[in-house]
Amino acid sequence: MSQQKGLHPLMVSACRFGGLSSVFLALLFILNNFLTYVGGLPGIYGTLGAAGLFGFSAPKGDVSGFALTMGWVQVLMALGVVVGAAVYTRSKGSLLADAMRMDKLASLIIRAAFWGVLFVGVADAIISFIRVEDLHTAMFGKDIATKLGLSSWRGMYIHIPLLILGAFIGFRDKSVSVVWLILLVVIAEMLIVLARFIFAYEQTFMGDLVRFWYAALFLFASAHTLKEEGHVRVDVIFASFQDRTKAWVNATGSVAFGMPLCWLVLVLGMSGKASLINSPMLNFETSMSGFGMYVKYLMAAFLVVFAMSMLAQFTSYFLNALAIMNGDARNDDAETGAEQKA
To answer: Which of 93, 114, 213, 235 has its CA 20 to 30 A from that of 287?
Structure first.
């Protein structure tokens, strides 16, 4: 493709800035959400409201001292992300390399979440089995046995450390695929069948484990499916388009529908303490069954993983489409070079 058919450099820079800043602002939004509602910080809106800037309403209670200082740190972090993205996009960079970085980010998020749900699922199922068989008091003592029945204690001192361990392993190990989640669901369902029809044994936590891992499979695999062009596309005339026209369609769809959907999930789900995602997580919400698994609040958190991984993958999809429209090389050598630079 000739150079004359490429995109204007300012348009390329603007698109790179918009895509990359969107992803990193989303990461910062999630971080600030926990700093605000768990750490008790005022947040960006609360800080600006306390200062009487831009018409934001002042937060309830006294916001001063250390809390206000940390609130300004939250504001400066947001500005830093925007400025950093602007500086980065002014430098010479490859759209393919940026797309590869976003693809790697989506894979990292999914790997970390996979190991987390693996460890938490196994550990919580074992704890639930011990409790339903009334073995916990003899094994751990009355004090620990009582605490194991509290979702907040189990979440804080068992689930969260296991999630951190899973994130560490996911950062180091790049061999895990979402296919392993299918295997986990099959194993969990097979255990139910064997226990029910051979040993006549079935408990609530066994079905909870299947639902826990199936929800992870359904939501974590979405970004991978997008990367592999596996989502259902109502293809009437798209297949007959040239590559450049397909790229325009994919870029437009990513910006108009895909990326806004991910932001919509994050904003509506984490806009306050009583929002659909924050409320279950902050309260360590569980199911009604007292001897089931205490992981319902984590299934709400799966939506955060879904939105963040899909946003990174849609950004990769968008930048990859821009590379095609810009006339960048699409052969295997070019893609390998872009991956090495990323």
So the answer is: 114
